[in-house]
């Protein structure tokens, strides 16, 4: 089996690559990444790219067709990957997350790739009061990031992709330990705050809902998707990926972290304006279609794993929100020094 993983040098990629290597030791695993976050390592282990057969570098907007020769499955992780980055770099978000994704899928079909796995997001539901949202509910993307994800999903559904099986995995909010941990995600932020300062300051009143998923369970879902038969969900499937027991309110997440890291204080902001990103998600169809690949990590285990990894690397930065562990800050620094252009292309030397 030959698998191309785009965006493998981000937060989720190293965990996915390690899982696929453990699942298929003899597989040919090819990474393709433009290395925005290559140096944002949070591990003392050898480079995670050593689990690959080969690492190639480049911009997905110019991904060469030749790289798809003989590929059985594409795992498309590459993206400008959250709301703040999408707000600051709206046009590149559209170019990278949507237009490049559509082009890569079309090239994959022309290269007779069997499976195309697109990392989408539950953020396409936006604000949703009341019951958990299922795949058949109305979408309400509130940000450039969310709009780019649903635009790609719709393009994949509308494009004639022949016999290629397409799976759009609408992941819950990622969390957990990785070789390149992001601290601009809610649970990861809380754990970092507890370690660095002994306190968690929740910016909201704590009531907004978030569905979460450990990155290790994202990798297991991707394993399922790269071999999913078209008879299981159809030739082009959009699927919520997570677990119903992982729908949490922000206050619950903060208290869970405080429980696992004794001495941590938690404060809420009862006067905060309502958080527009509040939604629960129904993951029943994922449970039905992929019963052997359901999330297995628990919230306490995930907090412990994050804690242990950050302690292992000596993390103690109270100003981490201005560090390279927050992806927007990394991009802003590169743009500020002229290494990246405003449209997120590496400047010519």
Tell me about this structure:
With 349 residues, the chain is of the alpha/beta class. The protein has a single domain (2-336), classed as Rossmann fold. It is 34% helix and 16% strand. The protein has helices at residues 13-23, 83-88, 90-110, 144-158, 186-197, 215-225, 250-260, 284-289, 299-312, 327-336, and strands spanning 2-6, 28-33, 54-57, 73-76, 115-121, 165-171, 173-175, 199-201, 209-214, 236-241, 247-249, 265-267. The strands form three sheets. It has a seven-stranded parallel beta sheet, sandwiched between helices. The protein has a three-stranded mixed beta sheet with strand order 7-9-11. α1 (13-23) crosses α6 (215-225), α3 runs parallel beside α4 and α7 (250-260) crosses α9. It is globular and about 55 Å long. The mean pLDDT is 95.
Features:
349 residues, 34% helix, Rossmann fold, 12 strands, 7-stranded parallel β-sheet, 16% strand, single chain, alpha/beta, 3-stranded mixed β-sheet
Brief synopsis:
The chain has 349 residues and is of the alpha/beta class. The chain has ten helices and twelve strands. Helix content is 34%, strand content 16%.
Structural class: alpha/beta
Q: What Rg, in angstroms, do the CA atoms define? A: 19 Å
CATH superfamily: NAD(P)-binding Rossmann-like Domain
**What percent of the residues sit in helical stretches (DSSP H or I)?**
25-40%
Class, according to the CATH hierarchy? Alpha Beta
Itemize the secondary structure elements and their pairings:
Layout: E1 2-6, H1 13-23, E2 28-33, E3 54-57, E4 73-76, H2 83-88, H3 90-110, E5 115-121, H4 144-158, E6 165-171, E7 173-175, H5 186-197, E8 199-201, E9 209-214, H6 215-225, E10 236-241, E11 247-249, H7 250-260, E12 265-267, H8 284-289, H9 299-312, H10 327-336
Parallel strand pairs: 1-2, 1-4, 2-3, 4-5, 5-6, 6-10, 7-9, 8-12
Antiparallel strand pairs: 9-11
Helix pairs in contact: 1-6, 3-4, 5-7, 5-9, 7-9
